[in-house]
């Protein structure tokens, strides 16, 4: 291959990569990837049973954390 063909291929691939990077950065800055309604729609269409399960899981998590903190209060490392 001639050198000008390789240079043209490198230039074209660099240009296409720059356009792709510009498009990605534009999408991030303009909020194209943000989905503000995702969690609201998820809660709206969940069943009552699923919501009750989520509440119970949060309560269990809080209980476990509270028990862990109570156990650590009286802990003293051995000498």
TrEMBL record:
Which UniProt keywords are present, listed alphabetically? Membrane, Transmembrane, Transmembrane helix
Q: Which residues cross the membrane?
A: 6-28
Q: What is this protein called?
A: Cbb3-type cytochrome oxidase assembly protein CcoS
The record's InterPro entries line, in alphabetical order, gives: Cyt_oxidase_maturation_cbb3
Q: Which organism is this protein's natural source?
A: Sulfurospirillum diekertiae
